[in-house]
Amino acid sequence: MTSINDLIVAAPAASCDVELTKGPWEFDTVPGYGPGCSEDDVIPEPVVRPGQLPAEYQRMSDDELHQRIRAAKETLGKRLVILGHFYQRDEVIQYADFVGDSFQLANAALTKPDADTIVFCGVHFMAETADILARPEQHVILPNLAAGCSMADMADEDSVEACWDELVSVYGTDDIDGKQPVIPVTYMNSSAALKAFCGKHGGIVCTSSNAATVLEWAFERGQRVLFFPDQHLGRNTAKAMGIPLEQMPMWNPRKPLGGSTEQELHDAKVILWHGFCSVHKRFTVAQIDQARTDHPGVKVIVHPESPMPVVDAADAAGSTDAIRKYVIASEPGDTIAIGTEVNMVNRLAAEFGDRTIFCLDPVVCPCSTMYRIHPGYLAWTLDGLVAGEIRNEIIVPDDIAADAKIALERMLAALPK
Predict the structure, then answer these.
(1) Are 330 and 355 in contact (CB under 8 A)?
(2) Helices 62-76/375-386 angle, 10° precision
(3) Burial of 391: CB neighbours in 10 Å, binned 0-12, 13-18, 19+
(4) CA distance 204 to 191
(5) What angle do CA 120, 415, 227 make, to 5 degrees?
(6) pLDDT for 11
(7) Among 63, 116, 205, 395, which is least packed, fewest CB within 10 Å?
(8) Which residues contact 91 (CB under 8 A, 6 or more apart)?
(9) What are the residues whose beta carbons fall under 8 Å from the beta carbon of 219, sequence distance 6 or more?
């Protein structure tokens, strides 16, 4: 089994940051997102996610950490369920009871109502979602509170509220032909507060798995959509539905009316927030061209968070689960280039050794915030549960959770195509 550390040690010149070989606790109290593809993103204030891993766990050997995790899992038994996102490192994902994308894990959390504790090996917004959907008696733990999401942080509640007020000034509030002027749609990669905003304003949450279904749902109820925070998923999904680019203006929260005219907003079908994923913006058409030159007959599949020209140049695009299914459906001997986070790509390459599978981006650059979930944090939080202590619990306030749950339940009912 190949880990990200193995890859970086083997080829440090090909890493976006050699500091990735350090333990993530080295960066948890430093402003910014740490080494990795999002390290250059500006972390907005007042987002603070302090790290707090005790020194003894930082000093433990890999063997000792894994022994502690296995022992704690055995002791806790069915009282514990561990959820792991596809992008997690192998050293963590091996302990997950469920592995999947955001949509799958949101559903998986519901299948274990008898578990006392859900440990979410992902990032902050995922743990918030699990807490919203969990029973009141269940506890949700994020092993490392510093595991945030740079994309989610690009759309904050104040900026979205200000955007909404400006849109109301342009569109008014009266329904036309039974449809409200604009429906808010937030990507799963957003805070609980923004999910609550959608719940309060007749909106919905989407994932990359069900974005097309969600947009159809929204257009049945509204004249247009405000889609945040990822511009690329919104643009790629709407374009595939036949919506022209000129009807998809970008909303820049730092400009009046988002940088558009009133007429452009009236003509809009999908208003795209100025946000993106640091992992997927790294993929380029040039990388696809190089893959086709080096590997004649290669099939290319990318995540829809990638820029539109990249999606257009690929053979297919889809969520992390769709990417996995694409590989499963391939034949031995096939060559597949994948445009998504490197941990998942490497895991698929190891699982399907009779195919040639590689990441489009030749530079090893994982999601710096997903990378913050390390066996040390998992061992520490599980040891706490064994001792009767709940560490790093994620609790969404009741008023926010109530509205957010409305939008999330709409999402769960919007099954992927």
Answers:
(1) yes
(2) 40
(3) middle
(4) 13
(5) 80
(6) 34
(7) 63
(8) 3, 62, 66, 374, 375
(9) 183, 225, 269
C-alpha triplet 47, 53, 56: angle, nearest 5°: 165
| Segments of the chain scoring below 70 in pLDDT | 1-15, 18, 45-51
Question: What pLDDT, on the 0 to 100 scale, is given for residue 46?
Answer: 63
Q: Which two tokens stand for residue 208?
A: 């990359």
Q: What backbone torsions phi and psi does residue 23 show, to the nearest 5 degrees?
A: -70, 140
Q: Are strands 225-228 and 270-273 parallel, antiparallel or unpaired?
A: parallel
CA–CA separation, 363 and 158 (whole Å): 36
State the pLDDT at residue 49: 66
**pLDDT for the residue numbered 107:** 83
- Give the residues across from 302 on adjacent strands: 317, 339
Whole-number pLDDT of residue 15: 63
- Structure confidence at residue 120 (pLDDT): 96
